[in-house]
What we know:
Structural class: mainly alpha
Oligomer: single chain
Number of domains: 1
Signal peptide: 1-25
GO molecular function: ER retention sequence binding
Transmembrane segments: 58-77, 98-115, 121-140, 152-170, 182-202
Main location: endoplasmic reticulum
Membrane topology: Multi-pass membrane protein
Amino acid sequence: MNAFRLAGDMTHLLSIILLLHKIRAMKSCAGISLRTQELYVIVFVTRYVDLSMKYYSFYNSIMKIVFLGTSISIVWYMRYHKVVKQTYNKDVDTFRHIFLILPCFVLALLINRAFTVIEVLWTFSLYLEAVAILPQLVLLQRSRNIDNLTGNYVFLLGAYRAFYLLNWIYRFFIENHQVRWIPWLSGLLQTAIYADFFYYYIKSWKNREKLKLPA
Length: 215
């Protein structure tokens, strides 16, 4: 565990806490993409399928359970809570996530570290996480009113991946000098996807303006 890994985990956790606070306190999921949240459930289920098979540390197990539980809870609120589900922007959240799931799964079958069920699922989760934010970004582009909590949530998600990139760079130079191409390239792609959002988020923050993304 190093400072970058810890910062990434805490930033990721903070983003989820922020989103759950919005949903539970405001009884609203306006501006949040259900498609993206469902993709994150798939990411965590496939990545942590070994939770009951391997034990790394107490911290590792707890974080896995938290991310699994919170991601499923968010989807439940958006789909089934009698008040929250009425605030869901279904008409603008139209990105077909099958167009992300299928290519990522095929790619995981073709490019992986080892052709085993665990490794293919782990690789698939990395590929899918890299593009899972796309439905959310498309929804924000179509929305004229992006509230601060939603903007902060997406920003923290992007910051989490940036910290993980720094974590891998740190581990390369300090620990083992091994390049793990699959997480590196997936992380670079994910950070690049956030780049445009980062620009407009920071610009709106500096100018004290309402966050708006170009169509």
